[in-house]
Design goal:
The protein is α+β, with helices and mostly antiparallel strands and 351 residues long. The protein has 5 helices and 19 strands. Strand 15, helix 4 and strand 16 form a beta-alpha-beta unit. Helix 4 runs parallel beside helix 5. It is elongated and about 75 Å long.
Length: 351
C-alpha cells in the first residue's frame, strides 16, 4: 500500500508558492523536485493544468505516493513516506482533459554544464560556444531529452517554452549558473523537431516577448519564428582530399551564387538543398571552378535582404530545407571536387 502522507505539514512556504505560480521564482531547482527536509524526503512539482500526480518508483514502476495539491495553479507536494535515500522516479499525471501521461521530471536532474565549460565561456576563451549554448539532444542516465542553455546574465527568470509544455513559462523555468550568467535545463522525453523559444523576465521583472534561440541550429520558415531542436552534430572529419585542397598554395577560382535565386527548380518558391545538389555542384565544376561561395544562408527574416540581415547565425535558412539537407549539399560539392565558402555577416543583425 502506497503512502499518501497528506496529513504531514508542508514545508513549502506561501512566498515560494506565489513565486512559482507567478513564474517569478529565481531558483526553481531549490524547491521543485526531490529534497531532503527535516529528516524526510519531499517531492514537489509544478504542473499547471494537472488534476492529480502520482509518484512512481522508476526501478519497479510501483506507486510510491500521491502528491497533494497545494495551489490550484498546479503546485503539488508530498513526503515520500519512510524513504531515506534519493531514488529515481517518474510522475503519472492526470490532466484536466482526462489525459494521463507518465513523465520523467526536469527537476530531478543536476547541473548540466561543467564548471570548466562555464569558466571558459565567461572568460571569452571558449571557441565553440555553440556546443554549450542552444538546444542539444542528450541522454541523462537512461532518459533521453534535450538540454537547453541561454546566456542572459541580466534576466531575473528564464523559461524554455514550446509545444511540449503548452508554451507555458511556468512549466520549465531554468537554473541560473551565476558564474557565467547562463541559464540551463534538461527537459526529458522531447527530441529533434520540437519547436521552442525562451521566455524572460528582464532585470526590472518585466515580461519580454518570446525570444528565438540565437544558438539554434534550425528555425521555422518565415513568417513563423520559433527555433527547432536539431539533431546533434555528426562530428565528421573533413576528407583528406579536401584538406589538401585547402592548402594556402592550392589554386582557387570561386563561383559566387545566391542559392535562393540561382535557378527555379521543381516550381518551388525556393530550391531545396537536395534539388540544388543534383545540378549546382556539377555545373560549377564543369566550368572549371574550384569553390562555390554561397551568399549568406544563415537564417534571416526578410527575403529582400538576400540573407544580409541575419538572425540565426548557426541555422541554415529553412527556405532550402533542413540542416541535414545542407550537409548533403556540401557532400555533393566535395564529391565534385569543390570547396564551399559561406558569406558570414554577423554585423547585420536586424531589430
Amino acid at each position: 500500500m502506497r503512502a499518501r502522507n497528506r496529513h504531514l505539514p508542508s514545508v513549502l512556504d506561501d512566498a515560494d508558492i506565489e513565486a512559482l505560480v507567478g513564474a517569478r521564482h529565481a531558483d526553481p531547482f531549490a524547491v521543485l523536485g526531490l529534497h531532503e527536509l527535516n529528516g524526510r524526503l519531499w517531492l514537489r512539482a509544478l504542473l499547471p493544468g494537472a488534476l492529480s500526480v502520482t509518484v512512481l518508483d522508476a526501478a519497479t514502476g510501483k506507486a510510491v505516493a500521491d502528491l497533494a495539491l497545494r495551489h490550484p495553479d498546479g503546485v503539488f507536494e508530498a513526503a515520500m513516506g519512510r524513504r531515506r535515500k534519493r531514488f529515481e522516479y517518474r510522475l503519472r499525471v492526470r490532466w484536466d482533459d482526462d489525459h494521463i501521461s507518465e513523465m520523467a521530471d526536469a527537476y530531478a536532474s543536476g547541473p548540466q554544464l561543467s564548471d570548466a565549460e562555464l569558466h571558459d565561456l565567461a572568460a571569452g576563451r571558449e571557441p565553440r560556444s555553440w556546443k554549450i549554448l542552444g538546444a542539444h539532444p542528450i541522454t541523462v542516465g537512461n532518459v533521453e531529452g534535450v538540454r537547453f542553455a541561454l546566456w542572459a546574465p541580466n534576466a531575473r527568470r528564464v523559461s524554455v517554452v514550446g509545444g511540449f509544455n503548452g508554451w507555458d513559462g511556468r512549466r520549465h523555468p531554468m537554473r541560473l549558473r551565476h558564474a557565467a550568467g547562463v541559464w540551463e535545463i534538461f527537459v526529458p522525453q522531447i527530441s529533434v523537431g520540437e519547436l521552442y523559444k525562451f521566455e524572460l523576465l528582464d532585470r526590472n521583472g518585466d515580461l519580454l516577448p518570446l525570444k528565438a534561440d540565437p544558438y539554434a541550429r534550425q528555425a521555422q520558415l518565415r513568417p513563423d519564428t520559433a527555433s527547432v531542436v536539431a539533431a546533434s552534430d555528426s562530428g565528421r572529419v573533413l576528407p583528406s582530399r579536401r584538406a589538401a585542397a585547402n592548402r594556402r598554395d592550392a589554386p582557387i577560382s570561386i563561383y559566387e551564387v545566391h542559392a535562393a535565386s540561382w535557378r527555379t527548380l521543381e516550381n518551388a518558391e525556393f530550391p531545396d538543398w537536395d534539388a540544388l545538389a543534383k545540378v549546382l555542384p556539377s555545373y560549377a565544376a564543369d566550368l572549371g571552378f574550384t569553390h562555390i561561395e554561397l551568399l549568406p544562408i544563415s537564417e534571416y527574416p526578410f527575403d529582400g535582404s538576400w540573407g544580409y540581415q541575419t538572425l540565426g547565425m548557426f541555422a541554415p535558412s529553412a527556405r532550402h530545407g533542413s540542416p541535414d539537407g545542407f550537409e548533403r549539399f556540401v557532400d555533393a560539392c566535395h564529391a565534385c571536387g569543390l570547396g564551399v565558402l559561406i558569406d558570414w555577416v554577423p554585423a547585420h543583425f536586424p531589430s
